[in-house]
Structures are given as structure tokens and as C-alpha cells.
Amino acid sequence: MTVLVTGSRGQLGAALLAEAARRRLAAEGHDLDTLDIADPVAVERTVLRVRPSVIVNCAAMTDVDRCESEPDAANRINGLAVGNLARAADLAGAVLVQVSTDYVFPGTGSRPWAEDDPVDPVNAYGRSKALGESLARTARRHLVVRTAWLFGPGGRNFVEAILRQVESGARTLDVVADQRGCPTYAPDLAGAILDLLARGATGTIHVVNAGSTTWHGFARAIVARTAPGVAVRPVPTEAFPRPARRPANSVLATDRLRRLLGRELPPWENALDRDLEARCAS
Q1: I want to staple 190 with a disulfide (CB 3.0 to 4.6 A). Which of 19, 183, 196, 200 is the partner?
Q2: pLDDT (tens digit, 0 to 9) for every residue of the chain, 282 residues total?
Q3: 167 phi and psi, to 5 degrees?
Q4: How far is the C-alpha of 102 from the C-alpha of 251, rounded, in Å?
Q5: Whole-number Cα distances in Å, 231 to 139, 173, 174, 224
Q6: What CATH code is assigned to 2-156+183-211+251-266?
Q7: Three-state DSSP string of 142-195
Q8: Phi, psi of 105 (to 5 degrees)
Q9: Enzyme catalytic residues
Q10: Sequence spans of domains, the chain
Q11: Is the overall model pTM greater than 0.90, yes or no?
């Protein structure tokens, strides 16, 4: 397996390259400075040079509020650019893996979202990612991996934000308690993607760590492990007005993942422990 990773300096892109190296797979990573996926000529040139068997697209505009104010840019990067990758993947005979998001769902109800539930995004980011999914499916061989609440080394994420507040001396944190989702550890996601590819998986699959929580519950778990004297108070979404609406229920069902791999990813609490241990070690 030869893997081409876009968005290689992000959390997931870096984790994929690290996991590919651990498995002794040939892999090449590109970020915006070496490959703009919105440039079809550059994409085709790079893909035909590398001749990968797999393209994993981790490149994205992930600032949800910026997407709300710049929907055209979001659609270009998260949506239309995926079509460039799909066409190039077909030329090279490669599988296209498109990394997508829980935000393609409206966040209503209380049950976990299944892969075949209708998408109905409530913000520009979700709409742009839904467009990316549809264009990824134009590739003859494709795998759409939806994930959520990503954290891990080397990027902006919720764990980093909470630790930064604690380190700055905060003794009380107000954290939203009415949004629920599945925290997902980038190295676990990277390993699962490569495992799915090794098994020839196609279509759409939800890949998140086992279990779910609220942002408040996630914050409490971080603080309990790092700064137990800090108080974490639950607040409603309305306490932090944002340009982009957030879905209340982002929990993803992982039945298909369990069927394909014969296992689920470790619980998010276990993943958090490993993330914090890695931070201490570094």
C-alpha cells in the first residue's frame, strides 16, 4: 500500500504518516505549501507522480465560525477540491478516502446517527463537508470516514484549549453541557483508517472512540486528570454565542465499524489518558 496524505501537518494527517511509518508503508504527505488541493492541475501532477494506491484527504477548512462568514471558501476547500482528488484518484487507480464530520447531521433527537441517516447540516461547515462527501463518491473507489471531536498531538483541539486555560491560572471553567458527541483520538482514527483499507472497506463508515459525553463532561475528565482543584461549571450553548450554529447531538453509531474490524476503538477516556501521557513524555 502506497499512501498519499493531504493536510499532512494537521492532527490526523500527521498521525496517519506516523502510523504508516510504524507499519512500514510507503507514504508521502503534503500540506498547503506543497499541494493546494483546490488546484486541479497540481493535484493531477502530484498524484500521477506518486502513483499512490490510496489518497487520504485530511486537508480542510475546519474553523467552523470562519466557514460561516466565508462559505464560498469553505465550499471550495472542503467541497469542490474533493472533486479534483476524485478525478486524480481514478486516473491513478487509487482509493480516495475522504475524512468527513458529524456536522453533516442536524443534531436533533437523542439516538446515535447511522451512516445511512439523511444528512441535513445546520451550518456552512457541515454543508461544505457534505458537498465533499458527495464529490468523493464520484471516485470509482472511495471510502468516506466520518469522525468527530478530534484531539491529539500537533494541533488546535479541545484538550489543548482546556490545558491552556488551566496553565494560565484559571480556577473556574464554564463549559457547554448541552452538546453531546464522541471525542476521538487522532492516532486511534489513523490506525482504524489503515485497518479499514487493509480490509478493502468502501462506502461510508463512522469512526470515533467508544462512548460519548458533553463538552462539559470532556472538560471535567481533562481537569480531573491534570488539575483537580479547578472547578468546571456546566452552561448552556447560549452562554457562548457563536456565528455558526452547533448540533446538539453529534453522537455517531459505530455498528458498521465493529462489523468490519471485529472491534470498536478504545473508550475516549482511555484515549485521553494516552494523550495526556504522551504530552507529559514530550
Answers
A1: 19
A2: 999 999 999 999 999 999 999 999 999 999 999 999 999 999 999 999 999 999 999 999 999 999 999 999 999 999 999 999 999 999 999 999 999 999 999 999 999 999 999 999 999 999 999 999 999 999 999 999 999 999 999 878 999 999 999 999 999 999 999 999 999 999 999 999 999 999 999 999 999 999 999 999 999 999 999 999 999 999 999 999 999 999 999 999 999 999 999 999 999 999 999 999 998 887
A3: -65, -25
A4: 8
A5: 49, 6, 9, 10
A6: 3.40.50.720
A7: EEEEEECCEECCCCCCHHHHHHHHHHCCCCEEEEECCCEECCEEHHHHHHHHHH
A8: -100, 155
A9: 125
A10: 2-156+183-211+251-266
A11: yes
Query: Per the structure block, which three cell numbers stand in for 240?
Result: 457562548
Residue whose cell numbers read 499512490: 52
Read off the amino acid at residue 255.
D
